[in-house]
Amino acid sequence: MFYKFCRSLFRFFFSVFCNWEVRGLENIPKEGPLLVIANHISYWDPVVIASVMNKHVYFMAKAELFNYPVFGALIRSLGAFPVSRKQIDRSSLKRALALLGEGKVVCIFPEGTRNKKGDLLPFLPGAAFIARKASVPIIPIALQKKRRFFGNKFFPHFFVNIGRSFIIEKEKQGDLKDDAGKMRVKVRSLIDFSIN
Question: Is the model's pLDDT at 69 over the cut of 90?
């Protein structure tokens, strides 16, 4: 209930104050598990993606965010779960696979950190590992923003471009880096580099 309230509140905020543009909503399957992959440009990204989706989204978030007692408790209550970026975090991978096995929506930012430079960083192999093991539809999303109201950074104009779903074969053999690269290509193809 609290999650739906927050989602409605931010949908209103993005529509009225940020004049967000969302393309490709028809590409989101209405039922079943989904693995969402997106570029990572700002702290707003999880809120934007959660506001776009009609199902509860469980975010894999950097472990450091959970060190803040109030904020950590809040995002955990909304379904986020921690991942360590310093090593292979098997517990977070198992958590993501368990959620997908329950038919839930899991979102990962495969770059592993925020990137404000425009083009994408290489995708880390964790998302490819989950995609192989789960073999569920993968939704690529490109997030972009530009300043509005004479450069006011508090009300940016958000652009959300949602691509068609694709699947990586279950237990596929080969280098995970290859699949991570393919996932990166899918997200990159949705970015409009004329937006700055």
Answer: no
